[in-house]
Amino acid sequence: MNMTDMKHSRQYKAENTVIKIGNLKLGNGGFLLAAGPCAIESANQYATIAQKVKQAGANVIRGSIFKPRSSPYSFQGLGHDGLRLIRDLGDEMDILVETEVMDPRDVKEVSRFVDILRVGARNMQNFDLLKELAKLDMPIILKRGMSATYQEWLMAAEYLMVNGNDQIILCERGIRTFEPALRNTLDLAGVAYLKHQTHLPIIVDPSHATGKRNLILPASKAAIAAGTDGLIIEVHHDPEHALCDGAQSLLPSQFNDLVTEIQPYLTIEKKHIHRKGDL
To answer: Does the CA dihedral 6-7-10-12 come out positive or negative?
Structure first.
């Protein structure tokens, strides 16, 4: 199959894909700003953080209940017990919600409780999972694998698009390199490059890309300059006691400051965020 037949490619579709999720339009100027805890630990923790990041300007609440941790002794998430927390919060706060899905057997159930599903870096090439997700008619965030090439990432997207679902959101979250100072190496050149290769929207996760709270703001600014269609940022009201990734989680006040800092480059309203110049 040549490139013109690949559903993700610019040759197949020249214009940018715009994904409509509730009141949000993502792509071609529409900007996704997702924020929330790495892991949902309790109803109170989730709601407390969600209220603060929505007030600051987030239009999607992130939060995972299934956690693919490197150590089997680390917190693995609330599992299926957390699904109702996600849906209830989304309905109560009138905001979009997302979560990660890891197991093909969970796809149908989890999709009933969220507005956006996320495929984590470790599952980018879980082809059984991708095939199951391809059957859905809903937006899917596809994170780049920690050592994946651009082509491997795009072909994973192709797995999701084979049944006609073009609501795919690519997410650059840093790759594993020889440099040990940061958790990962944020590949912003790849964001700019892929803008020429695919019509799909691309967002950036500066939290996982850097692993350091004080680097999230400059990484976010750089991502916007590179052309990202959105950011997904981890926020925790008590990061020193977070059960997962506290070191890379902003305090709510810091997230509010971040939104203020990126304000000159975006138009931020209550439910809609746009890149300036694309309105």
So the answer is: positive
pLDDT tens string 202-261: 999 999 999 999 999 999 999 999 999 999 999 999 999 888 888 999 999 999 999 999
In 3D, which of 59, 53, 24 has the Cα closest to residue 37? 53
Distance (Å, rounded) from C-alpha 181 to C-alpha 37?
Answer: 24
CA 168 to chain centre: 11
Alpha helices per DSSP H over the chain: 43-56, 83-93, 107-111, 127-133, 150-161, 188-197, 206-210, 216-226, 252-262
Q: What's CA 266's distance to the chain center, in Å?
A: 18
Q: What does pTM read for this prediction?
A: 0.93
The type of residue at 206 is P
3-state secondary structure of 141: strand
Residue 134, C-beta contacts closer than 8 angstroms, at least 6 positions apart: 159, 160, 161, 162, 163, 165
In the chain, where the domains are located: 17-275
Topology (CATH) of 17-275? TIM Barrel (3.20.20)
Task: Tell me the one-letter amino acid at 261.
Answer: E
Structure tokens of 125?
């090439």
